[in-house]
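Example record

The entry below shows one chain as it appears in the dataset: sequence first, then structure tokens.
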Amino acid sequence: MNTFSRVAIALVGMTGVAVAQPKADAPKPGDTKAPDMSPPAELATLAKSVAGTWHCKGQGMDHTQKMVDTSGTMTIKLDVNNWWLHGSFESKMGKESFKFESFTTYNPGTKRWSRVMVESGGNWASGESAGEKDHKVDWELTTHSPMMGDAMFRDHEDMSDPKAGAKMWGEFSPDKGKSWVKVYELACKK
């Protein structure tokens, strides 16, 4: 499977699906209170709506750079002392198998979501999102591939139609954002 395909499916991480997030207060200058060392409340709130097993179907770009039928299962749970949402994805893209692990957390100080992913092709990705707006989430990530080097990726998640489940699609840019190629599209339901 080529890097396009692996990166595409890897970024369906969906652990940032839309959910209204409460706002956290930033510390004020001169504040002498000890910082709160507990996991962010926003993370626990999101986990209530996304934790569990999701079944996904759609299409992804295979090693021939053609879109092929794809199906997979995503399991999401709070992990690492409740500081991270851990997503485990196993799929078949055409006849090829693919896996990834994603970890998503929230920083109340910056009010941004962060994600780190590693996948079965040796690639890894990291990036951020401003979070949910109108039941949609957009991620800006940088991918790192042993075959193709660094590249840009945009991952989009849409939960605006609860009956349809989570709709996700990803775009890959090998040329620093000059051009974008849609490399996967999935719908996932619990």
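Notes for this example: The first strand starts at residue 52 and ends at 61. The longest helix spans residues 41-50.
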